[in-house]
Amino acid sequence: MTLEHDPHQLTEPDWKQSLRPLAALRSLGVFGGTFDPVHLGHLILAERACDELGLECVLFVPAKRPPHKQRGVEISPAEDRLAMLQCAVSDNPRFFVSDLELRREGVSFTVTTLQQLHQALPDAALTLLIGGDNARDFLSWRQPEAIAQLAQLAVWLRPGFQAPPELLPGITYRTIPAPLMEISGTEIRRRVRHGRSIRYMAPDQVIDYINTHGLYR
After folding, report:
1. Which residues contact 86 (CB under 8 A, 6 or more apart)?
2. Domains present along the chain, CATH in parentheses
């Protein structure tokens, strides 16, 4: 995501209109990822962020083409990942899903998403939610200084994880205590592929979607 006046040639009415339900918010957490699939770990972390940081809402933003995804790793179709997210958050009024990055062409850079959110929601204070592992690589992200200007940074810290002293020189960040959870999209996909149960790893609605659509076989 880069700072541009016309990010990836999106028409303003389309992408701004999609964020209209959030117009009254004053604090918003931004949670990006592939969510392939979304699982209970994601939801627990988002709920924890709301409580610890006093956020009114966490916005889940599935990426179209993550810049740090390993080459050769296949990602499920965007419509499936989006649908699973929408199923997973449907009963939580503090969670919202945006297809902002899925509408754009090219790599999903965070800095562009934050710029677009600022344009659509000028009164909302944005907090970018980052996992501890990603925090270590923050300097390699596209325009990290611009990201830090557009949003407060907050890092989930697992037990035993050593937080970096700073993500950028002179830039402070908040921390969110996170429970130790051995749940990952990789493990879920592997278990489905081998015919093993993923019960209690993902919401029931997501498991039903995976089974109905034959994902990860």
Report:
1. 97
2. 24-182 (3.40.50.620)
